[in-house]
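Form 12-C: Joint structure prediction
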Amino acid sequence: MDFGLTTEHEMVQKMVGDFARKEVAPIIKETDREQEMAPHILPKMGELGILGICIPERYGGQGMDYISLGLASEELEVIDTTLRVVMSVHNGLASMTLFQWGTEEQKKKYLVPLARGEKIGCGAFSEPGAGSDFANILMTGKRDGDEYILNGEKMWISLATKADFAVVTVRTKADVAKPSQGLTTFIVELDLPGITRGDIHGKLGVRAGSTGWISFQDVRVPLENRIGEEGEGFKVTMTAFDHGRYTVAAGATGLIRASLEASVAYAKEREAFGKPIAHHQLIQEKIARMARDYEIARLLYLKAGWMKNEGKRNTFETSMAKQFATDRSFHAASEAIQIHGAYGFSDEYDVERFMRNARGAMIYEGSNEIQSLIQADYALGYRKDKAVRCELPAYDSQAWQS
Amino acid sequence: MNIVVCVKQTPDTAATVTVEDGKISWGDAPLVLNPWDEFAVEEALRLKEAHGGEVTAISLGPEDAKEALKQSLAMGCENAILVSDPSFAGLDSLQVSKVLAAAIEKVGEVDLVFFGRSSVDTDTGITGSQVARRLGWPALSLVAVINSLDPESKRLEVERMLDETRQQVRASFPAAISVVKEINEPRYPSFMGIRKASKAEIPIWSAAELSLEGDLKSAVTWPEVWAPPKIETQCEFVEGETPEEIAAKLVDRLIEEKVV
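Section 2 - Result
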């Protein structure tokens, strides 16, 4: 067993971290207040290859492994959650889902520009009335010759207004034994007639990012844009969540680290009762908890990343990593505010943004209550991994880098 | 074009410098490619891309300095060489220039050597000029722009950034050039570069390989090192009803304190 990162992984961390520190950290307070994503971010991430990090070179990507995806997500969220959200939806929900389930033609047409960063992708799954209860989504897709006609609305979609393509799951069959059996997934070009979209403002956190809605009115999508078989949409979507959740777990780990680093710096500098507050045991307890949580969260996501590399299903492990890291990142950020005292309550320091940003991840990509149910089902033996028709390919450095 | 860029592994600029037991300590600050050298690497790469050839990064330092070389490889340098020997530890810049000049001569047929303006740890800023002197080449220091370069006639024109002016200088090459940050925006390493760098076997040139055994003696030593006295600062807020009133009070205080 080797817990060390490779030189390659360490250099990925440094490169992505340098990008976030140089290009985003100086402006993040301003863009967070303005509730707008800085326009240079997505093109720059594309130019650097971050948007295709774990996609093989033959599909326009960089041919790095899934651990690199996790490490990049962690580095990005140390600076701001909105950067990691891009990894979750563009890389996780869109690109990796196409990589896992797409036909060769779909990969050439959609995955290549996504991995090159020439186009932006998102995953459109949640609806105004269905998030955790995903099997009961209402948006419909009706077959009409060689096309499907999509109608309905998707809500809380990250990058809704920035994306060129969306992976969308809809109900194509109503009369089925279980609601999850009637779902089908598509790759949809978001400039098609009948599509309108907008951003949602007034969110508690991730304010420097784009979260919005996409409305579909009689949108005609060709048959060749169906991802997987008709009725396979629930499985496609659940595997998409495995990819998205992995990046959320890694990112939330970065948020714990950011809270820890900010708290350590402040505790050494701020004095109370005649000495730096770092010397007070109740502050030390908070710092110790953050350090411990960071280490646990990191091990959990790296194990999930290793399983992805090995081509092993990791729904259980990814669920634990996501729930633990997001719960603990909120706690760490809240404690970081406590350590900063009144200053932590103002946006002069970053920790209040960390707490606002941490809160959303306890809800999205499968609420943490849903994660508990998943984990209980595995632990009780009620749920076992069944092979899906298309598994996420294991990492193969030689094949991916040629 | 055969270009060499001399790089150094230094502590991160965010590191806090302290003195412990008479020795300088950077704590556990991460070691990075000297930030000034990133501009040198970038300019070398740009010239290579414009005129062809290859770029070799050379670093003098311990085994750790390979990390700076890997960063240079990841940015796009073709080759990297670590110049390392126990007798090289703690050399002053005059002796460092001797080692680097020997390494550059060993590379052979070099057209240009790039340096950052200084290193963020020792900050002498003279190594580039010293290397040029040893090689008998023109020293073009503090270069902010390369106006023109002709590989055929081996002539170049640069703009040096001086305190209150810029100076245009024409020279023939081979030449040694130190660059300032205004010259370019260094690129990030590419993923392909990272993969290449992480697999690279970096050769090490020792004193024996450079024929420098027993030949190095620093002129400068640091017999004692101590931390500067702490500067106590006090913060005073000048308040008032209007900006004019605040400004007037501020002027009074500055006169009172004999600042103006």
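Section 3 - Comments
The two ends of chain B are 55 Å apart (CA to CA). Chain B touches chain A at residues 70-71, 74, 188-192, 194-195, 197-198 (CB under 8 Å).
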